[in-house]
Specification:
The protein contains 19 helices and 13 strands. The protein is an alpha/beta fold and 544 residues long. The protein folds into three domains: 279 residues, Glycogen Phosphorylase B (Rossmann fold); 162 residues, Glycogen Phosphorylase B (Rossmann fold), CATH 3.40.50; 37 residues.
């Protein structure tokens, strides 16, 4: 009998052991053909796979190597539209104004969603009744049509924001607190806090929201209706079903946010992977720099060969004026080096360069990961932003005191050279950069461990009502505390109305009195006239 009980207990133990230790099925949708985004995605996918979760990810072709144990669905259509755009010399013209940038983004997002949902591999997955996913993990942007994956597979919807969080991320997370500091396209945005700037920024954000409602969402709605026509939920309902959203941000980077519990800051995920080492020649160039080193890079998204020749020329002329050595990451190998202080490299081990003790300054376009790595290494920055989030990334660290930001449309050799010398020779920038580095590194858990923990938290807790601040639960008047304003408004309104009524009555009484006096005077005049007429008539009769 005891032997039988033992085997029953052992079978129950094995059942629960394998049931509880069974990994979840997670579908990740990461469509952007930008290497910087996948530097954030790759460590998280690897970590989740290593913990036993079954990962399937949808990506462009060849954006990064296959990850062992992960099923890849590659979308070739995503490559074609990116290549056609990047190979065009008119690429930067899309970002000449906010409106042209918005037009480009709207069409790009529509093509991305349609390219994914129309892919044969994705369609096979959608129509395979054996496919099951517990979670849909995707970029928390304006790819609304892709939210249909969550309803189709009855899965938890989780977001990942690889760029600076915006008001759209706040809305998806159920964080309706008003914010005039988080635009999506901050090209003409004001980063100071004056009254006029706040008003201008409020108009700016309102315009972006109108673009979202009138341009972005209708196109995504059509795609959603086309590919998920049998969905049991509306697209607006799916937008409100995001559980946890991981954001590539940290309060130490110069911007403190008011986050609800399901917005998790995980900036620095990509730093969990080992950095690429320097080769011998580059190492020697850095080690032997007696006056320090300046590192110049526009990241992996802005190619120097596409920059105007005038900017290329003034950059080179400015570098030759400096006594410091300059490491230039460039896709153009034939850069003249008359002064002998320039080292050109096509694929730079950026993290290793920034960690070198001789590096004094980082000249950057302001990509999120580049800014993050400079903060991590404690290196001051000279920012030359071009588009998207680069303006906001750089202006925040400028306000924090470790950077100077220049307008790429107003560059000159003198401005560039004087800014470089100010950043290197004034010790306040280096000191502030070291302080921000310490704050960025000081955390209870690593960014990757934090991201993994909250991902599994979202898997364990499918009911997300306790971590979201749903706007429907808080009427507009109650959320903003307008009931007290209404109460005071009614009181002041009653007092002001009473005073107005009293004043009106006094005015009316005085007016009536004046009117009565005037009427009496008129009657006297009329009587006098009549009396005079009567006397004249009598005289006339007597004379006759």
């Amino acid at each position: 009998m005891q032997f039988r009980k033992f085997w029953i207990a052992f079978a129950i133990f094995l059942y629960f052991y394998f049931e509880l230790s069974h990994g979840a099925n997670i579908l990740g949708v990461f469509p952007y053909r930008l290497p910087s985004h996948f530097q954030v995605v790759r460590p998280l996918v690897k970590a989740l796979s290593n913990r036993g979760h079954n990962m399937t990810i949808i990506t462009p072709v060849g954006i990064f190597a296959d990850i062992e144990g992960v099923r890849h669905i590659r979308i070739s259509n995503l490559n074609k539209m990116s290549e056609n755009l990047l190979e065009s010399n008119e690429f930067l013209d899309f970002f000449s104004s906010k409106w042209s940038e918005a037009y480009w983004i709207a069409s790009m997002l529509s093509n991305v969603s349609d390219g994914i949902l129309s892919d044969e591999g994705v369609q096979r997955m959608l129509h395979n009744k054996n496919e099951r996913f517990d979670m849909i993990l995707l970029e928390a942007g304006h790819l609304d049509a892709l939210y249909g994956f969550a309803d189709h597979f009855n899965a938890t919807l989780m977001g990942l924001s690889c760029v600076i969080p915006t008001w759209n991320v706040d809305l998806l997370a159920g964080n309706p607190a008003p914010s005039v500091y988080e635009p999506i396209m901050p090209r003409e945005y004001n980063f100071d806090t004056s009254l006029m700037s706040r008003f201008s920024n409020w108009i700016y954000i309102t315009e972006e929201k109108l673009l979202s409602y009138l341009v972005f969402r209708p196109v995504q709605q059509k795609l959603f209706n086309k590919y998920f026509r049998h969905s049991s939920k509306k697209l607006s309902e799916l937008r409100a079903q995001f559980s946890v959203i991981l954001i590539n941000n940290h309060f130490s980077m110069g911007r403190v946010r008011a986050n609800v519990p399901n917005i998790i800051e995980v900036a620095g995920i990509h730093l969990s992977e080992p950095p690429e080492p320097c080769d011998k020649d580059l190492r020697r160039f850095l080690d032997e720099a007696e006056n320090g080193v300046i590192y110049f890079s526009l990241g992996m998204d802005v190619l120097i060969k596409f920059l105007p020749k005038s900017i290329q020329k003034l950059l080179l002329e400015s570098f030759t004026r400096l006594k410091q050595r300059v490491v230039v990451r460039s896709d153009v190998s034939s850069i003249p080096n008359k002064s002998g202080n320039i080292y050109v490299i096509s694929q730079a081990p950026q993290r290793e360069i920034l960690e070198h003790p001789n590096v004094r300054l980082f000249i950057t376009h302001g990509g999120m990961l580049s800014v993050m790595e400079a903060i991590y290494s404690g290196v001051p920055m000279l920012g030359i932003p071009f588009f998207f989030d680069q303006f906001g990334n750089l202006h925040r660290v400028q306000l924090a005191g470790m950077a100077i930001v220049l307008d790429n449309n107003a560059l000159s050799v003198d401005i560039l050279t004087s800014s470089i010398r100010e950043l290197i020779e004034n010790p306040k920038y280096a000191l502030r950069a070291k302080e921000m580095s310490l704050n960025f590194r000081d955390r209870p858990m690593s960014p990757l461990d934090t991201a993994v923990w909250w991902t599994e938290y979202a898997l364990r807790n499918q009911d997300i009502s306790h971590i979201r601040l749903n706007e429907d639960e808080f009427p507009f008047v109650q959320y903003y505390g307008l009931e007290s304003l209404i109460s005071w408004g009614l009181r002041f309104g009653f007092v002001i109305g009473s005073l107005f009524l009293l004043g009106f009555r006094i005015y009316q009484k005085g007016f009536n009195r004046q009117r009565q006096v005037l009427k009496t005077d008129q009657n006297i005049v009329i009587y006098a006239r009549n009396k005079k007429s009567d006397l004249q008539l009598r005289k006339s009769l007597q004379s006759n």
